[in-house]
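1st attempt posting a full record on here, be nice pls
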Amino acid sequence: MKTRIIAIEGIDGSGKTVQFDRLVGRLRGMGFSVDLRFFPDYDAFFGRQVGRFLSKSEGVAATDVDQRSMALWFALDRWEAFQGWQDGEYDYLVINRYVLSNAVYQSIRDGDLGKPDIMDWVFELEYGHFKLPRPDVNLFFDVECRRAGQNVDRKGYREYVGSERDVYERDNGIQTRARDMYLAAAQRYGDVVVIPCMDGEVMRTPDSIADEVFRRLQERGVV
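the predicted structure (as C-alpha coordinates):
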Protein backbone atom coordinates (compact mmCIF):
# COMPACT_ATOMS: atom_id res chain seq x y z
CA MET A 1 0.00 0.00 0.00
CA LYS A 2 1.20 3.51 -0.78
CA THR A 3 2.56 5.61 2.08
CA ARG A 4 0.37 8.66 2.62
CA ILE A 5 2.47 11.80 2.87
CA ILE A 6 1.55 14.91 4.86
CA ALA A 7 3.75 18.02 4.66
CA ILE A 8 3.60 20.64 7.41
CA GLU A 9 4.20 24.18 6.10
CA GLY A 10 4.14 27.76 7.36
CA ILE A 11 6.22 30.85 7.92
CA ASP A 12 8.81 30.82 10.70
CA GLY A 13 7.13 30.81 14.10
CA SER A 14 3.75 29.54 12.92
CA GLY A 15 3.67 26.58 15.32
CA LYS A 16 4.54 23.90 12.76
CA THR A 17 6.52 21.73 15.17
CA VAL A 18 3.77 21.73 17.80
CA GLN A 19 1.21 20.57 15.25
CA PHE A 20 3.68 18.14 13.69
CA ASP A 21 4.14 16.43 17.07
CA ARG A 22 0.40 16.34 17.74
CA LEU A 23 -0.43 14.85 14.36
CA VAL A 24 2.29 12.20 14.61
CA GLY A 25 1.10 11.28 18.12
CA ARG A 26 -2.51 11.02 16.99
CA LEU A 27 -1.71 8.82 14.01
CA ARG A 28 0.47 6.53 16.10
CA GLY A 29 -2.22 6.40 18.76
CA MET A 30 -4.59 5.07 16.09
CA GLY A 31 -2.18 2.24 15.40
CA PHE A 32 -0.57 3.58 12.21
CA SER A 33 3.16 3.36 11.52
CA VAL A 34 4.60 6.83 10.93
CA ASP A 35 7.93 7.87 9.40
CA LEU A 36 9.30 11.38 10.01
CA ARG A 37 11.40 13.91 8.13
CA PHE A 38 12.54 17.42 9.17
CA PHE A 39 14.01 19.95 6.76
CA PRO A 40 16.53 21.42 6.61
CA ASP A 41 18.43 18.54 8.22
CA TYR A 42 21.25 20.48 9.86
CA ASP A 43 23.07 17.25 10.77
CA ALA A 44 23.39 16.18 7.11
CA PHE A 45 26.00 17.29 4.57
CA PHE A 46 23.84 19.62 2.47
CA GLY A 47 21.71 20.71 5.42
CA ARG A 48 24.79 21.90 7.30
CA GLN A 49 25.66 24.17 4.39
CA VAL A 50 22.09 25.48 4.33
CA GLY A 51 22.51 26.29 8.02
CA ARG A 52 25.70 28.22 7.28
CA PHE A 53 23.88 30.28 4.66
CA LEU A 54 20.95 30.93 7.01
CA SER A 55 23.22 31.98 9.88
CA LYS A 56 25.73 33.78 7.62
CA SER A 57 28.43 32.07 9.70
CA GLU A 58 30.83 31.92 6.74
CA GLY A 59 30.13 35.47 5.55
CA VAL A 60 27.62 34.56 2.83
CA ALA A 61 23.90 34.78 3.62
CA ALA A 62 21.17 32.78 1.95
CA THR A 63 19.78 36.07 0.68
CA ASP A 64 23.08 36.72 -1.15
CA VAL A 65 22.84 33.51 -3.20
CA ASP A 66 20.80 33.57 -6.41
CA GLN A 67 17.38 32.00 -6.04
CA ARG A 68 17.89 28.85 -8.14
CA SER A 69 21.25 28.06 -6.55
CA MET A 70 19.78 28.47 -3.06
CA ALA A 71 16.80 26.32 -4.04
CA LEU A 72 19.24 23.64 -5.19
CA TRP A 73 20.98 23.49 -1.79
CA PHE A 74 17.63 22.93 -0.06
CA ALA A 75 16.63 20.35 -2.69
CA LEU A 76 19.89 18.43 -2.32
CA ASP A 77 19.27 18.21 1.43
CA ARG A 78 15.97 16.45 0.74
CA TRP A 79 17.43 14.29 -2.03
CA GLU A 80 20.07 13.02 0.41
CA ALA A 81 17.48 12.31 3.09
CA PHE A 82 15.39 10.15 0.76
CA GLN A 83 18.17 7.84 -0.36
CA GLY A 84 16.91 4.33 0.43
CA TRP A 85 13.37 5.45 1.24
CA GLN A 86 10.74 2.92 0.16
CA ASP A 87 7.13 3.83 -0.55
CA GLY A 88 4.76 1.60 1.40
CA GLU A 89 7.19 0.79 4.23
CA TYR A 90 5.14 3.01 6.57
CA ASP A 91 1.47 3.95 6.64
CA TYR A 92 2.32 7.66 6.88
CA LEU A 93 5.23 9.98 6.28
CA VAL A 94 4.90 13.34 8.05
CA ILE A 95 7.35 16.05 6.99
CA ASN A 96 8.15 19.32 8.78
CA ARG A 97 8.86 21.70 5.86
CA TYR A 98 9.10 20.23 2.40
CA VAL A 99 9.26 21.19 -1.27
CA LEU A 100 6.56 23.87 -1.08
CA SER A 101 8.66 25.77 1.47
CA ASN A 102 11.58 25.88 -0.95
CA ALA A 103 9.34 27.05 -3.80
CA VAL A 104 7.89 29.82 -1.63
CA TYR A 105 10.99 31.19 0.08
CA GLN A 106 13.26 31.22 -2.96
CA SER A 107 10.63 33.24 -4.85
CA ILE A 108 10.12 36.17 -2.50
CA ARG A 109 13.50 37.41 -1.22
CA ASP A 110 14.44 41.08 -1.61
CA GLY A 111 16.80 40.35 -4.49
CA ASP A 112 14.11 38.44 -6.36
CA LEU A 113 11.44 41.14 -6.32
CA GLY A 114 10.15 41.86 -9.81
CA LYS A 115 11.28 38.47 -11.10
CA PRO A 116 8.86 35.65 -11.97
CA ASP A 117 8.47 33.18 -9.12
CA ILE A 118 10.28 29.85 -9.45
CA MET A 119 7.63 27.68 -7.84
CA ASP A 120 7.01 25.44 -10.83
CA TRP A 121 10.78 25.20 -11.48
CA VAL A 122 11.34 24.00 -7.89
CA PHE A 123 8.61 21.38 -8.28
CA GLU A 124 10.20 20.20 -11.54
CA LEU A 125 13.61 20.06 -9.83
CA GLU A 126 12.53 18.16 -6.73
CA TYR A 127 9.62 16.02 -7.91
CA GLY A 128 10.63 15.66 -11.55
CA HIS A 129 14.43 15.51 -11.60
CA PHE A 130 15.19 14.23 -8.08
CA LYS A 131 12.07 12.01 -8.02
CA LEU A 132 11.16 13.00 -4.45
CA PRO A 133 7.76 11.68 -3.36
CA ARG A 134 4.87 14.12 -3.70
CA PRO A 135 2.77 14.78 -0.58
CA ASP A 136 -0.89 13.90 -0.58
CA VAL A 137 -1.47 17.24 1.13
CA ASN A 138 0.50 20.33 2.19
CA LEU A 139 -0.94 21.84 5.38
CA PHE A 140 -0.19 25.57 5.60
CA PHE A 141 -0.50 26.91 9.16
CA ASP A 142 -1.49 30.54 8.70
CA VAL A 143 -0.31 32.97 11.41
CA GLU A 144 -0.06 36.77 11.27
CA CYS A 145 3.58 37.74 10.77
CA ARG A 146 4.00 39.88 13.90
CA ARG A 147 2.77 37.06 16.14
CA ALA A 148 4.92 34.53 14.29
CA GLY A 149 7.98 36.72 14.94
CA GLN A 150 7.19 36.74 18.66
CA ASN A 151 7.01 32.94 18.56
CA VAL A 152 10.42 32.76 16.88
CA ASP A 153 11.94 34.86 19.67
CA ARG A 154 10.70 32.32 22.21
CA LYS A 155 12.47 29.39 20.54
CA GLY A 156 15.71 29.96 22.44
CA TYR A 157 19.02 28.42 21.41
CA ARG A 158 19.23 26.51 18.13
CA GLU A 159 22.47 24.86 17.06
CA TYR A 160 22.64 26.32 13.56
CA VAL A 161 22.00 29.95 14.55
CA GLY A 162 22.33 30.19 18.35
CA SER A 163 19.77 32.38 20.11
CA GLU A 164 19.29 34.79 17.20
CA ARG A 165 16.89 34.79 14.26
CA ASP A 166 18.29 33.45 11.00
CA VAL A 167 18.54 35.69 7.92
CA TYR A 168 15.05 34.76 6.71
CA GLU A 169 13.42 35.01 10.15
CA ARG A 170 14.75 38.51 10.83
CA ASP A 171 13.50 39.89 7.51
CA ASN A 172 9.88 40.97 8.08
CA GLY A 173 9.47 41.64 4.38
CA ILE A 174 10.37 38.06 3.52
CA GLN A 175 7.99 36.68 6.13
CA THR A 176 5.11 38.85 4.90
CA ARG A 177 5.73 37.91 1.28
CA ALA A 178 6.14 34.24 2.23
CA ARG A 179 2.76 34.23 3.92
CA ASP A 180 1.17 35.87 0.87
CA MET A 181 2.87 33.36 -1.43
CA TYR A 182 1.66 30.40 0.63
CA LEU A 183 -1.90 31.75 0.44
CA ALA A 184 -1.53 32.25 -3.31
CA ALA A 185 -0.23 28.68 -3.63
CA ALA A 186 -3.39 27.43 -1.93
CA GLN A 187 -5.35 29.03 -4.77
CA ARG A 188 -2.93 27.83 -7.43
CA TYR A 189 -2.43 24.20 -6.39
CA GLY A 190 -5.07 21.75 -5.27
CA ASP A 191 -2.90 19.99 -2.68
CA VAL A 192 -2.37 23.04 -0.40
CA VAL A 193 -4.78 23.40 2.53
CA VAL A 194 -4.84 26.55 4.69
CA ILE A 195 -5.24 26.01 8.44
CA PRO A 196 -6.15 29.36 10.10
CA CYS A 197 -4.26 29.54 13.41
CA MET A 198 -5.58 32.86 14.70
CA ASP A 199 -8.96 34.08 15.89
CA GLY A 200 -8.65 37.79 15.21
CA GLU A 201 -5.40 38.85 16.91
CA VAL A 202 -5.32 35.86 19.27
CA MET A 203 -3.73 32.48 18.60
CA ARG A 204 -6.17 29.61 18.64
CA THR A 205 -5.43 26.84 21.13
CA PRO A 206 -3.16 24.04 19.91
CA ASP A 207 -5.99 21.55 20.52
CA SER A 208 -8.47 23.42 18.34
CA ILE A 209 -5.91 23.71 15.53
CA ALA A 210 -5.03 20.01 15.80
CA ASP A 211 -8.71 19.06 15.65
CA GLU A 212 -9.18 21.14 12.51
CA VAL A 213 -6.14 19.50 10.94
CA PHE A 214 -7.63 16.08 11.51
CA ARG A 215 -11.02 17.13 10.11
CA ARG A 216 -9.39 18.51 6.98
CA LEU A 217 -7.38 15.34 6.50
CA GLN A 218 -10.52 13.27 6.89
CA GLU A 219 -12.33 15.43 4.32
CA ARG A 220 -9.57 14.68 1.84
CA GLY A 221 -9.53 10.96 2.60
CA VAL A 222 -5.94 11.11 3.85
CA VAL A 223 -6.96 9.53 7.18
